[in-house]
Amino acid sequence: MATCIVSGNLQLLDGTPIEGAIIKARIVTSYFSTTIQISPQEVTTSTDASGDWSLTLQRLSSPIISVEYTPDDTSSSRFLEYSVTVPDASTADFSTIATEL
Q: Average pLDDT, stretch 73-80?
């Protein structure tokens, strides 16, 4: 199975990095993409002190990527979801392949 490292950076609008955000990619059902089978999977990571994160995902898969974090000025969690098509490449920048749901 060929993989792609998808990476990104999470910041507040003022440019402050968000540390400790949970980034989760999930594929719920199995399907075929061209000639390869994409199997259900869930992969999770968190952002570092600079807001950076990366996930190793199957190439040509189409996971839903969720982002959950709690800003310092509130106790309420924020939750965002994105549709992604992972390219047939060794690396990809999340900001260029994601569409917010």
A: 82
